[in-house]
């Protein structure tokens, strides 16, 4: 349900950027979303269609780049994406790990015209 | 034309959180954001905290719920300043809601402000508020797998409080599994076991809170 607030922010930033570049249309918004953020792509898509009506972003495509949860292993020193969230190091299977990535939530780039 | 944006989606929220931070600092208020799933014991822990601290520090409480003022009614009976905010359907408090609340209440003379966030293990974790500390409660009946299922919430908490330990004779709960989950996402979190029903561990929680307030 926090997707509504997140989508409103995506739209606000996209429209602000479009205005800055004097764009007449937003074609695509490239989002980067970490797996830990709990953001559901379909939800954002659904809210976006609703919120962007009557704006220059109404036909924009949303692209989601999902970033896996990444952990550092204190035993073998590797930093790697976690497989299937089993919370052990994929290399040495140690559970002496710490999550270091997967919280990303930002707009990377946009296509405008 | 492609343009680089590289902007955090919640940057507008973060800017308001920064304003909250300044406002709280200016007034010398220590603010705690208390989060948990519905029924984990947020209001119960608040009541226990008020009981033990009201003669030592000046407390104010912001109760956030989707609807109703049931919790605020309970808290205001304890004689502390209480403000109820209804999020009107939103599953979390964002920095702007907290800002409106802070602007509408008198913070003069308040030492400790506790925000009881909306009962939810997902959304509240996503929104920075500008408070001093985040604490979360996870209760025994919810199970020991919660840190693995809701890693973001556990990763933002400065303290993780396990409530309802009086139910341990009746419910399966593996503390080792739970604490490993917490340490994977948040090795620095303080971990405490309490029971709001029997009072076990509440003193330790209150000591933690007082120590953090002095930092």
Protein described:
With 113 residues, chain A is an alpha+beta fold. Chain A has helices at residues 3-20, 41-51; strands at 26-34, 61-67, 70-73, 79-81, 97-101, 105-112. In chain A, helix 2 links the parallel strand 1 and strand 2 (61-67). The radius of gyration of chain A is 18 Å and the shape is elongated. Chain A starts with a helix and ends with a strand. The mean pLDDT of chain A is 94. Chain B contains eight helices and eight strands; from the N terminus they run E-H-E-H-E-H-E-H-E-E-H-H-E-H-E-H. In chain B, strand 3 (59-65), helix 3 and strand 4 (81-86) form a beta-alpha-beta unit. The termini of chain B are far apart. The mean pLDDT of chain B is 95. At the A-B interface, helix 1, strand 5 and strand 6 of A face strand 1, helix 1, helix 6 and helix 7 of B. Strand 6 (105-112) of chain A pairs antiparallel with strand 1 of chain B.
Layout of strands and helices, then pairs:
The complex is a heterodimer of chains A (113) and B (215).
Chain A: H1 3-20, E1 26-34, H2 41-51, E2 61-67, E3 70-73, E4 79-81, E5 97-101, E6 105-112
Parallel strand pairs in A: 1-2
Antiparallel strand pairs in A: 1-6, 3-4, 3-5
Helix pairs in contact in A: 1-2
Chain B: E1 2-8, H1 11-27, E2 30-36, H2 42-53, E3 59-65, H3 70-76, E4 81-86, H4 95-104, E5 112-116, E6 133-139, H5 146-149, H6 151-156, E7 159-163, H7 175-185, E8 190-193, H8 202-214
Parallel strand pairs in B: 2-5, 2-6, 3-4, 3-5, 6-7, 7-8
Helix pairs in contact in B: 1-4, 2-8
Q: What's the number of helices of chain A?
A: 2
Chain-averaged pLDDT of chain A: 94
Radius of gyration of chain A: 18 Å
Order of helices and strands of chain A: HEHEEEEE
* Count of distinct strands of chain A: 6
Largest sheet of chain A: 3 strands, mixed
Q: Give, in spatial order, the strands making up the sheet with the most strands of chain B.
A: 4-3-5-2-6-7-8
Q: What is the number of helices of chain B? A: 8
Q: Major sheet of chain B: size, sense and barrel closure?
A: 7 strands, parallel
State the share of residues found in helices of chain B, binned by percent.
Answer: 25-40%
Q: What is the general shape of chain A?
A: elongated
Question: Roughly how much helix do the residues of chain A carry, as a percent range?
Answer: 25-40%
As a whole number of angstroms, the C-alpha radius of gyration of chain B is: 17 Å
Order of strands across the biggest sheet of chain A? 2-1-6
Computed structural class of chain A:
alpha+beta
Summarize model confidence as the mean pLDDT of chain B.
Answer: 95
Beta fraction of the residues of chain A? 25-35%
β-strand number of chain B = 8
